[in-house]
Every structure is written in C-alpha cells, then in structure tokens.
Design brief:
It holds the Pfam family AAA-ATPase_like. Residues 12-231 form the AAA-ATPase-like domain. The chain is of the alpha/beta class. The chain has two domains: 32-246, Rossmann fold; 251-322, no CATH class. 44% of the residues lie in helices and 8% in strands. It contains 14 helices and five strands. It has a five-stranded parallel β-sheet, with helices on both faces. Helix 7 (176-184) crosses helix 8 and helix 11 (254-264) packs across helix 13. It is globular and about 65 Å long. 36% of the residues are buried.
C-alpha cells in the first residue's frame, strides 16, 4: 500500500504554533489535560521545567490559545475534541495574555545582552498590541536597555486599558540565555542575577505587579539554576516540575505514540507494525520520568517526530540511533 492510498497528516516537527495545527492538518498529541491541573490553583505562579526539545513551547502556545481573550472566537475550532474541552472550564479565554520567548535573547557582552533582552520583551508587547489593537502604548522614548521599566510602563498602560486584574504573563525558555552565560562567563552570570542585575530587577518588577495587575504567570525552562539565583526577586514562584500530574505534560508516552505513528507513517507499506517502530525507538528516545510517583515514562517528542519524518521521507524502517 502506498502513501497515495493512505491519508497521512503533516508532521509538526519544528512547529510550535498550536493555533495552526488544525488548519495545517498537523498531527496532534493532546496534552490539554495538563491545563486542568494548572487551573486548579495549586499556585498562581508555577514553574515547569523539562529538557530541551520536549514540546514546552507548543504547550505555552496552547495555554495562550486557551486563556487569551483574543482567541475566544476560535475556542471551538482549536479545542473541540480535546480532553480539556470536555471539562468545559469557565476560565477559558478569560485573561489578557502576554508571552515572552527568552530563547531569542542574544548573549555576548552586557550591553548587547541588555539590548537583546529589551528587544525580546518589546516583541512580546508588540504581539499583545496586534491581538488588542485598541490597546495604546508608546514606548519609543524609553531607554532601549531597560526591559524592567519597559514592562512596568506596559503594566501601567494595561491598568488603564483593563479595570480587572486579568493579565496572564507567560515566559518560555526563561533560562535559555542565562544557562549559556553561566557556562561561558560566570562573572557575567553573577552580575545579571545580582540584587541590582537587570534579570533580577525584571522578575522583581513582575512580582511587584502581582498585587494589582498580574493575575497569573507561567514559566518554562530547562534548569532550576537560574531560578534559584533569582529567588529573592521572584520568590513567589513554585517549582511544580516533579509533581506526578505533570509527568506527561511534555514528551510522548507509548500509548500516545501508538495513536500518533499511523497518522504520520504508512506502517503497512513499511511492512512493520506500530509496535515494531516503538520498540526500535524505545532504547534511543524513551526513559524520561519526572516524578517518583509516576507510572509511565515519556519519549523525547522532538526526536521522535524527527525520526518519523525521516522514515516517511525514506520510506524505510530506519535505525533511530542515526537520528539524534
């Protein structure tokens, strides 16, 4: 049987934009149930860490689509058929979401770092303005190296824009650039995370705004090292990384792979079964467990998707060890 007679979905490898999954006919592993545990209120300011290439950014984009008011008209389109949709949570599309992706921050000397950090924060603000065109905020006169002041001024403008405390701040890859600096320039790392460092000042600004402007935050990253260094600046954050309810929030379980693989690969044409593919992938991509109480392990999702992309391209049952 050829691919011409088997309807396959597109592989989402490298695509973190959740809002395009359905319109682009991308295969989708439903991780939406994790929203339920965030919504239960164990913490308004959770931090959820995972290794690189595990699907954290896609999850952040899904959160944004679920909670942001500007996506209200697309709620049915984006979430019908998902586990979280069936729960009918009243909090969906009830916040103004601003999100930052700190993986885009460039490292180098301090001045370059300050400028790049400002640009990334301003990029998040520009995205907010695109979703809310009636929100007016002019920051052209601000110091282009002072991201904390930029965000504080944004918050002041937001308070005038919205009477309710409904701002949800999402930060993806919070530690990406900080970890790189830590590995190359320890003195610079100490400088940016010190009491007067720009990074600690930025998070301290967020903390100060939780009293009357920011309702919730959600932070992802790889390591808790930078978080520990920022404790006094953002000591309201709760690290929920090892809670068993989040063990499967990123990465793929075997049950999920059994559903996903036939959507991406013509297994009959390969002359194998879905279980054959999983067994070949298991020693290479499996074995991650993030809670002592969890009863399942997860596979690295990006590596799985990359491997399945190559299998589909080559139409051959390939060795996963060659695709790391």
């Amino acid at each position: 049987m050829s691919e011409n007679t088997v309807t396959l979905l597109n592989n989402p490898y490298g695509d973190a934009s959740f809002d395009s999954f359905r319109q682009d006919e991308l295969a989708f592993v439903d991780k939406s149930l994790s929203i339920k545990y965030l919504d239960k209120g164990m913490s308004k300011y959770p931090v959820l860490l995972r290794p690189r290439r595990f699907g954290k950014s896609t999850f952040v984009q899904m959160l944004k689509c679920f909670y942001d008011i500007s996506y209200q008209d697309r709620y049915e389109e984006l979430f019908s058929g998902t586990k979280i949709y069936d729960l009918n949570l009243p909090t969906h599309n009830s916040y103004h979401v601003i999100n930052f992706d700190f993986s885009a921050v460039s490292t180098g000397n301090l001045n370059k770092l300050l400028t790049s950090f400002f640009v990334v924060v301003s990029r998040g603000i520009k995205d907010f303005i695109l979703r809310y065109p009636d929100f007016v905020f002019d920051y052209s006169a601000l110091d282009k190296t002072d991201a904390a002041t930029l965000f504080n001024e944004f918050a002041i403008a937001y308070k005038d824009y919205s009477e309710s405390q409904k701002l949800y701040v999402m930060i993806d890859e919070y530690d990406n650039f900080a970890n790189e600096i830590l590995s190359k320039d320890f003195e610079l790392f100490l400088k940016i995370t010190s009491k007067d460092g720009f990074l600690k000042t930025f998070y301290a600004t967020i903390k100060s705004l939780t009293t009357d402007t920011i309702a919730k935050t959600f932070i992802t990253g790889v390591s808790s090292v930078s978080l520990d260094s920022l404790t006094s600046g953002f000591n309201i954050a709760l690290n929920v990384t090892s809670l068993d309810c989040f063990n499967e929030y990123a990465g793929f379980t075997e049950d999920e792979l059994e559903i996903l693989i036939p959507k991406l690969v013509d297994v009959e044409m390969l002359g194998v079964t879905t279980k054959d593919i999983i067994e070949r992938m298991k020693p290479v991509y499996d074995g991650y467990c993030f809670s002592r109480r969890a009863d399942k392990t997860v596979y690295n999702s990006s590596m799985c998707l990359y491997y399945l992309t190559k299998v589909r391209q080559e139409q051959t049952f390939l060795n996963p060890e060659d695709y790391l």
